[in-house]
Design goal:
Radius of gyration: 59 Å
Strand order of the largest sheet: 1-2
Oligomer: single chain
Distance between the termini: 123 Å
Helix content: 55-70%
Number of strands: 2
Structural class: mainly alpha
Number of helices: 29
């Protein structure tokens, strides 16, 4: 803060402002000398002048106090004396003694040093926290940059630097220049009188500057209780800066002291700050605080009432939903049955119902595995029986919002609003009666008197309201709306009472506690659903993995079996080829002999093991030869007889020569015999399969 402001603060607090001219490095006692204050009381305690010093303590400016002294026929310069010394002593000694000046001549060395001290260069300060040089280590950045930059080697404008960061002027000369009232070097600085607290005046000035409206216009609007375009925040701010009783008294005294002429009164008003001017304008408005209350209530009424009505509707809908939800009813029945079965096994002393707080215990109670909660088991039970009950929340859309509604609080808010409506109504009627009397005297209507029309939204076009103020119209309509809201409040109270009775709860249970419990259960329930779904998905994943591993294992076994059978099939083919070679060696008769095939070789091998002679006319071999004759002439391709020959070979290999049973060759030989027996029906040399058909070949 500048020195002048500090000295003004000292003067305001009744202290000597000259104290700031002393050396702050030395004690006060060493720089001041005790003086005889005389036998009388200090000036500030003198009965004749005590009240004027109290005015200073109240915050009145010095000018206002001096005007009060002048008005009372006293010397206003008395306020320039030291308040700690008696009036008699200061008048006899001429006030504060001045030091005798030395004779003009050559200045002493001490005086020169003193002058140089006063004219020393003042520098701007960069308030940083320097590091102690002893703490700077060799590896630190400050050790490395020490002396790295020389200001003298840098390129910069020295005159610019000095003008920005140094000052060689004498502060005393600046004081004289600023304080010179008749200076022609510049316009006179406007003085701002502070009757009220400086901080309060500054805050009020900021608010008023944003409104950009004449204070007299604001006062007129408040007097007529017309909020205009002001919102609730602005009205509340304006109400905050209404003058207090103390401020009212101080401002009133200041204005009266300057009321000797209109010119002086105007000058005194100009010296006031913006907030003080606003206070002066509001001092002429009767019951300004009550009128502000009415305007604030009017600006907030519609929004506040809508909030309360919306809460009532939410609660009413929630009450209806919990009573009519079929899914919730079935779910509660399942929970009751499950609980009884857990507690008693379904027999014995069964519970007929439970309180809502039991819903929250379902998530806390664990099975003996210490993992599965009763609520999780409930979800599994519902999935297996009636999965639609899991979505019971769909029938309770408003319950979540109703959890934050307190019916008791709504009732209290409605009661308070009703009282405020009555208060506004009384204030409006009182002001309306005053205006009607005044209008009657002038033979004009109230609307003409206040030079405004009532707001159309307030039914001012009705004949019943033709001679009422806008605030009266508002209060009447607000009363009607309040009665409607009160009816809805009573209805929802009855509805909630029926809900408590429906669930068997205590009739004193708060609404937020009831719906809060249901909301908490809903949250826990769907958390359990999510957990169960996750576990089931994980179980299904594990089952699929196990099935895949089993299929892979079976596939490996099938491949192994196929390899074994393929190896066995290779051995049969070798046996059949060996039999074919033996057949070729055993043929003794000439003539056309078909080329031995696998079937023929198998038949021959079978007969040979039985000790039979192998020739072309032998039964079994003949059948095989007949079956393969057509293909005998072909040079390429598999041996005729195909699968049948391979089967015959395998049968021949399995049946021992010494065994008792069917002829060697088994089923294959029998099939070949059947084919031979039917040779008359089907020629062996014709195209197509041999007699016996596909069955014979397959065998």
């Amino acid at each position: 803060l500048p020195m002048g402001a500090v000295k003004n603060a000292l003067q305001r607090d009744g202290k000597d402002p000259g104290i700031m001219d002393l050396n702050p490095e030395k004690s006060l006692k060493s720089q001041t000398k005790e003086e005889d204050n005389g036998d009388g009381p200090p000036l500030k305690e003198d009965p004749e002048y005590e009240k004027y010093f109290k005015m200073l303590k109240m915050g009145l400016p010095m000018g206002a106090v001096q005007n009060a002294l002048l008005r009372d026929g006293k010397d206003p310069t008395i306020m320039d004396l030291d308040p700690e010394k008696s009036v008699e002593f200061q008048r006899n000694s001429g006030g504060k003694k001045k030091k005798k000046g030395k004779k003009k001549g050559k200045k002493t060395k001490a005086e020169k040093e003193k002058k140089e001290k006063k004219l020393k260069v003042r520098r701007k300060k960069l308030f940083w926290n320097p590091i102690d040089e002893g703490k700077i280590k060799k590896h630190s950045i400050w050790y490395k940059v020490k002396g790295a930059v020389d200001m003298g080697k840098l390129k910069y404008d020295a005159s610019e630097f000095d003008s920005l960061f140094t000052d060689t002027s004498n502060p005393a000369d600046k004081k004289k220049k600023v304080g010179a009232g008749d200076s022609s070097s510049g316009p006179k600085q406007k003085k701002s009188t502070q009757v009220i607290d400086g901080k309060r005046g500054m805050n009020g000035g900021i608010i008023l500057a944003r409104l950009k409206m004449e204070y007299s216009v604001i006062a007129n609007m408040v007097d007529n209780m017309d909020s205009g375009k002001f919102d609730a925040t602005q009205l509340r701010a304006l109400q905050e800066f209404l003058p207090t009783d103390e401020e009212h008294q101080g401002l009133d005294s200041y204005i009266k002291s300057a009321s000797t002429s209109e010119e002086k009164k105007k000058e005194a008003m100009d010296d006031l700050c913006a907030c003080e001017k606003y206070m002066v304008a509001m001092m002429v408005v009767s019951e300004s605080a009550s009128k502000f209350d009415c305007m604030l209530f009017q600006s907030q009424f519609e929004c506040s009432l809508k909030e309360i009505v919306d809460e009532i509707i939410k609660l009413s809908n929630a009450c209806k939903e919990v009573r009519t939800s079929s899914r919730l009813q079935k779910l509660m029945a399942v929970i009751l049955t499950l609980g009884n079965h857990i507690n008693t096994g379904g027999t014995g002393n069964l519970a007929s119902g439970f309180s809502l707080d039991a819903l929250l215990k379902l998530d806390e109670a664990k099975a003996f595995d210490k993992k599965t909660s009763v609520l999780q088991y409930l979800v599994k039970l519902l999935k297996q029986n009636d999965e639609s009950l899991i979505q019971f929340k769909e029938e309770l859309p408003t319950v979540a919002e109703a959890g934050s509604v307190m019916l008791d609080s709504l009732s209290a808010d409605m009661k308070q609003m009703k009282e405020e409506v009555e208060k506004v109504k009384k204030t409006a009627e009182k002001e309306g009666n005053r205006l009607r009397r005044e209008a009657k005297e002038k033979n004009i209507t109230v609307a003409e008197l206040i030079a405004e029309k009532a707001d159309g939204s307030n039914n001012n076009d009705q004949t019943d309201y033709k001679d009422k103020t806008p605030m009266e119209v508002f209060s009447l309509n607000a009363e009607v709306e309040m009665n409607k809201a009160l009816t809805k409040t009573d209805d929802v109270k009855d509805s909630y009472g029926e809900v408590l009775e429906y669930f068997g709860e205590d009739e004193k249970m708060p609404s937020n506690e009831f719906f809060g419990t249901i909301n908490k259960f809903i949250s826990n329930f769907y958390a359990a659903v999510e957990f169960v779904d996750k576990m089931e998905a994980q179980k299904l994943k594990e089952e699929k993995r196990a099935a895949a591993l089993q299929a892979k294992h079976e596939k490996k076994l099938a491949a192994k079996k196929a390899r074994e059978e393929a190896m066995a099939g290779g051995a049969s083919e070798k046996s059949a080829m060996a039999a074919s070679d033996a057949l070729s060696a055993d043929f003794t008769e000439g003539g056309d002999r078909p080329k031995p095939t696998l079937a023929a070789a198998a038949a021959a091998a079978s007969l040979k093991r039985r000790g039979s002679k192998v020739d072309a006319k032998n039964g079994f071999i003949a059948a095989a030869v007949a079956a393969t004759k057509k293909k005998a002439e072909e040079e390429n391709g598999p041996p005729l007889g195909g699968i049948a020959a391979m089967a015959a070979s395998a049968a021949a290999r399995k049946k021992s020569v010494n065994d008792i049973g069917p002829p060697a060759g088994g089923i294959a030989a029998a099939a070949a015999a059947a084919a031979a027996a039917a040779a008359g029906k089907k020629s062996a040399i014709e195209e197509g399969p041999p007699a016996g058909g596909i069955a014979a070949m397959a065998a």
